[in-house]
Design brief:
Elements: E1 8-15, H1 18-28, E2 32-39, E3 42-51, E4 60-65, E5 78-87, H2 91-100, E6 109-111, E7 114-120, E8 126-132, E9 153-161, H3 165-174, E10 178-183, E11 186-190, E12 199-204, E13 218-225, H4 228-240, E14 249-250, E15 254-260, E16 266-274, H5 299-305
Parallel strand pairs: 1-4, 5-8, 9-12, 13-16
Antiparallel strand pairs: 1-13, 2-3, 3-4, 5-9, 6-7, 7-8, 10-11, 11-12, 14-15, 15-16
Bound molecules: zinc ion.
Length: 310
């Protein structure tokens, strides 16, 4: 069991204005900022991690906010939608909240027997809130959002493909997902290795133009493994399938491998260890600017160029 992929670890997307992103996710959506650091490849840019209290894998949404970035476009060869689970009966609350906060949303609809609400974040990134009967994950609560409405964590992520076969093969043969259901052109793949954040949907849309990954787009999807030994097991297996996969990379809060699946979406595999409390106590998560060791000497300059959030 321990060598399995345990669903989604995190999802990373691209934003424009940092403060607008921070305000939307912490206040409107009510997530916890669990880490405020910089893009390790571009230290003049933030890297925000939002999630539950501890930043549990399966709840973590991360952003690179690049001021002035061009707008991306949803399309094929992309992850096109991020799904969160919310309590049964909470969609009316969210509709009202979106209305009051000028959030673009659609009327609730239903698929696979579950009610959901689609909305866009301030950069146009597409989300769904899906009502679920039971979810035992401990929610992060904020002054305006209590247990009866607060998000639990990821429900699913959706990939759009012109032809789904190659992507489906990676999901099933490498990552352990199984096709569980199909509605029209949406194919739902589920792993039984974990209870939550266990769903990847592929929407097969033959005529859909190729999307452009930029502002308001998903950058990559990270899948979850227990530890580094399991990580390297997947590296061997990916190589055996002919995929081009990176060496192990230390991301401070997890260890990672990256590869582009044949359908064009960047996939990552990331470990549970060491987690977000490696450089900050639980109570203080997200309240300090944390820098990787190689940038600590430049802290003053980095703090000067990073946008203010208050
Ligand atoms: Zn990542």
């Amino acid at each position: 069991m321990e060598t399995k992929i345990s669903g989604i670890h995190h999802i990373t997307a691209i934003a424009g204005n940092a403060k607008r992103n921070y305000d939307f996710y912490t206040r409107v959506l009510g997530l916890r900022l669990v880490k405020k650091t910089v893009n390790f490849d571009d230290p003049g840019t933030y890297h925000f991690y939002y999630g539950d209290e501890q930043g549990t894998p399966g709840t973590i949404l991360t952003f690179f906010p690049w001021e002035g970035i061009v707008q991306g476009r949803r399309g094929s060869r992309q992850a096109t939608e991020i799904g969160y689970s919310v309590p049964s009966g909470s969609l009316a609350f969210w509709q009202d909240r979106f209305e009051k906060n000028n959030v673009i949303y659609n009327k609730p609809a239903e698929k696979f027997g579950q009610k959901y609400l689609t909305f866009l974040d301030p950069d146009g990134l597409k989300f769904e809130l899906t009502e679920v009967e039971t979810d035992t994950r401990k929610q992060w609560l904020s002054p305006e959002i209590g247990t009866e409405n607060a998000v639990y964590g990821f429900h699913h992520v959706t990939i759009t493909a012109n032809k789904m076969e190659a992507t489906a093969q990676v999901l099933t043969e490498l990552l352990g997902y199984k096709l569980a259901a199909t509605e029209v052109n949406r194919h739902r793949f589920v792993t039984n290795a974990v209870e939550y954040a266990a769903i990847v949907d592929i929407v097969e849309a033959p005529g859909e133009p190729i999307g452009h990954v930029a502002g308001g787009s998903v950058h990559h999807i990270a899948f979850r493994v227990k530890d580094e030994e399991t990580l390297m097991h997947y590296r061997d297996r990916a190589l055996a399938m002919g995929l081009h996969i990176t060496e192990k990379i230390d991301r401070n809060y997890f260890y990672s491998l990256y590869f582009r699946e044949p359908g064009g979406v960047l996939f990552e595999i990331a470990t549970d260890n060491p987690g977000f409390t490696v450089d900050e106590p639980l109570e203080e998560l997200g309240s300090n600017l944390k820098l990787p060791a190689q940038y600590e000497a430049d802290r003053q300059e980095i703090e000067k160029v990073l946008p203010k959030l208050d």
